Amino acid sequence: MCGLCKSNQDVGFVGINASDINFSAGRYDTSVKPPFDVGFEGMGEVVALGLSASAKYTVGQPVSYFRPGAFAEYIVVPAKEAIPIPTVKPEFLSLLVSGATAYISLKELGELSEGKTVLVTAAAGGTGQFAVQLAKKAKCHVLGTCSSDEKSGFLKSIGCDRPINYKIEHVADVLKKECPKGVDVVYESVGGKMFDLAINSLATKGRLIIIGFISGYQTPTGLQPSNVEILPAKLLRKSASIRGFFLLHYISEYQAAMKHLVEMCENKELTCEVDFGDMSPEGKFTGLESVFRAIDYMYMGKNIGKIVVELPHSVNSKL
């Protein structure tokens, strides 16, 4: 058994994910019935320890955690699941789900190499920002879709070669003109029409990695219509492939990925942009009561980087 976490500033943090809606809607585990705890990631300092944790952790030690029930002031975390971090800093929180998803999916499924062309959808979001940077570190040519000039500017600042603001440009036209041979790897999280566009834009032997389909999560079924009936023929003609990625299926890779990501963040080799909602109508996301606003903010496409909620005077994990 593990203990409770609280920072020296009496502040903890929890992260917002697109999948929060799918989980709370019962789409991940239909056997779970309300009421149940929600949220996937948080951080704080240890405030209490169980016997099995006392040899590895100390009270006051900063840790983060990735497990259901994170939207809480206090949470019990098994010692083996707690992730030591240098300090309680929200940038580290952005790595737990978003950073790890980008890192492991591209490493295991992307087959990235120098000179490859990579398209990242929702590139300025919590996960997209890491996919852009990791693809650039692999010396790929990276294009990223976004919805505003401000997001385009952010993408340029983290190395994206070609931000595409789909509000003012047709993504298909840009790809046809600038990637005439197609895109080697697509990192896709939007679904619906964007998924269809991505399939049509794949190069011969191209790979599409699905890490989500946020455009459909708020529908009754959690899906968004797509022209899947012609998909096999399109893949066959290009010897292309589609791979789904769900982080929990790669948990054996998680600790090593987090160690590398934290090191890159500490060494300023990786930008970990966080969005506290300061520009939202009701201001900064503070306290558990603001989680609902933070999720709405994400689904309106307003965020740049990872959405984080601050929990003042609270504890985030018990080991």
Descriptors for this entry?
319 residues; alpha/beta; Quinone Oxidoreductase, Chain A, domain 1; Rossmann fold; six-stranded parallel beta sheet; 12 strands; 18% strand
SSE layout and pairing:
Layout (H helix, E strand, L loop, with lengths): L10 E5 L3 H6 L16 E5 L16 E5 L16 E2 L5 H21 L6 E4 L7 H10 L3 E6 L2 H9 L4 E4 L5 H8 L4 E6 L3 H9 L1 E9 L20 H8 L2 E4 L9 H13 L7 E2 L15 H9 L6 E7 L7
Parallel strand pairs: 5-6, 5-8, 6-7, 8-9, 9-10, 11-12
Antiparallel strand pairs: 1-2, 1-12, 2-3, 3-4
Helix pairs in contact: 2-3, 2-8
Question: Would you kindly provide a written description of the structure presented here, covering whatever features stand out?
Answer:
GO terms for molecular function: 15-oxoprostaglandin 13-reductase [NAD(P)+] activity; zinc ion binding. Its EC number is 1.3.1.48. Residues 3-309 form the Enoyl reductase (ER) domain. This is 15-oxoprostaglandin 13-reductase. The protein is α/β, with parallel strands linked by helices and 319 residues long. It has two domains: 11-94 and 273-312, Medium-chain alcohol dehydrogenases, catalytic domain (Quinone Oxidoreductase, Chain A, domain 1, Alpha-Beta Complex); 97-248, NAD(P)-binding Rossmann-like Domain (Rossmann fold), CATH 3.40.50.720. The protein is built from nine helices and twelve strands. It has helices at 19-24, 90-110, 128-137, 149-157, 171-178, 192-200, 231-238, 254-266, 291-299, and strands spanning 11-15, 41-45, 62-66, 83-84, 117-120, 141-146, 162-165, 183-188, 202-210, 241-244, 274-275, 306-312. A six-stranded mixed sheet has the order 4-3-2-1-12-11, sandwiched between helices. Strands 7-6-5-8-9-10 form a six-stranded parallel sheet, with helices on both faces. Helix 2 (90-110) crosses helix 3 (128-137) and helix 2 (90-110) packs across helix 8. The chain is globular. The N and C termini lie close together (6 Å).
